[in-house]
Amino acid sequence: MAEVELARVVGPASFEKRVVIKRMLPTLLGDEQLVGVFEREARLSALIEHPNVVQVSDFGRDESGRPYLVMEFVDGLNLREALRLAWKQPGGPDRRLIAWVFAQAATGLAAVHDAVDPKTGVSLQLVHRDVSPDNLLLSRHGAVKVSDFGIARAMQEAPMTSPHLIRGKINYLSPEQLRSEPVTRAVDQFALGVCLYEALCCARPFAGDNESAVMYAIAQGLRADVTAHAPACDPRLVAIVDRCLQNAPEARFPDCHALADALSHFVHESGPSVTAVHVGAWVAGLKGVPQTPAFIEVPIDVSTAPALAARFSTPESSLLPDVPVRPMTPVAAAVARPVTPSAPVPVEAAPAAPAVTGSARAPLEPRPSRRWWVVPVLVAVAGLAVWGSGVMRPQPKSVQVVVTSRPGNATVSVDELEVGPTPWAGDLTIGAEHVISVKAAGFAPWSVKLDAGVGGSLEATLKRR
Hints:
CATH architecture of the largest domain: Orthogonal Bundle
Shape: globular
Radius of gyration: 23 Å
CATH topology of the largest domain: Transferase(Phosphotransferase), domain 1
Strand content: 15-25%
Order of helices and strands: EEHEEEHHEEEEEHHHHHHHHEEEEEEEE
CATH superfamily of the largest domain: Transferase(Phosphotransferase) domain 1
Largest sheet: 5 strands, antiparallel
């Protein structure tokens, strides 16, 4: 959905700050729904200021009309990559250190859930809805940050997509999402519990040969105990995981503050203190961690620098009405210009970009006595929520759709072609609308039209004739 570019802001007196530019892919500009999702991510991200949440400092459109975000750069990698490297080493990651990391992540999610409308002070009741190891970022200095608000929304708002469509990664969906029940903050806690289970066990809690089997296991609460994979895991930590993964939302922790407190208490009571210094040393010590990419600058004529003066502004706005999108400033356009083979500097192979984002704040108002401009640098491109590849990933040609039903074992058809019984999972071609139909004897047929490029999980509730 988006490409990510690494850039730096430079100014007088050798001022320099690295930032990340996230821009929507040009092929998706014709999809108003996806454009709305991207703009929504900008509005939601700007409302949350917390050390455990990736910060957004600017939003606009470039000269081609593509919306973009200017985000902080966290020099490190995401949790999935960190765990992949850690489990290659004897003994895997230290479980007390992992507990501290997740206490910070839970604190970040609590900040998301606590966000309020800046005008009214009323809680927005935000839910992230896409918590996964890919969206939990670790820096070389030990910072832990929650990222990617592409599908976050307020609980009281109407969904932007079909009401039958479930957003999120299948392995991290909660039972109530699979049942098409109202989404609450408890779904983020469940997803974080799945991440914690994976970090402690090097295994998924809900196993299955295919997506349908995984969804069935989640819905029924069928999983192995933590001690089946990690016999030496402290019972207090096991109890925390078990509570996060309760099938009923009300049986979990009251909120992410309570979860963070439980994890912090465990760390405090179970041994020596753990701090960001320890996490930073752990991240830096992982074998195979990519180095911070070196910048390859595209020269800018110094005489044109005044014309590149940034006019960063933050319009007063509420989440509820749409925020007008301002045109991209010349400085931002300079950032977005890609490095091409014809650039007047040699481009050498560079190490893969790290998985994550360091803090970058541009001034909110221009000052006549100070000029700021951005120098384009090494471009690190990845898919939305996928960092660290260092190369442009091919755009997917299909999206996955999973269909469940009440009652079960109903017949699924795609574009009038019967494909199998529920639960069913399959891939749909991007670029065309698709009609999903579900039928069962004695029940009225059910169908829904999916817009081009839309995937996810669907639940069909059939009504008796």
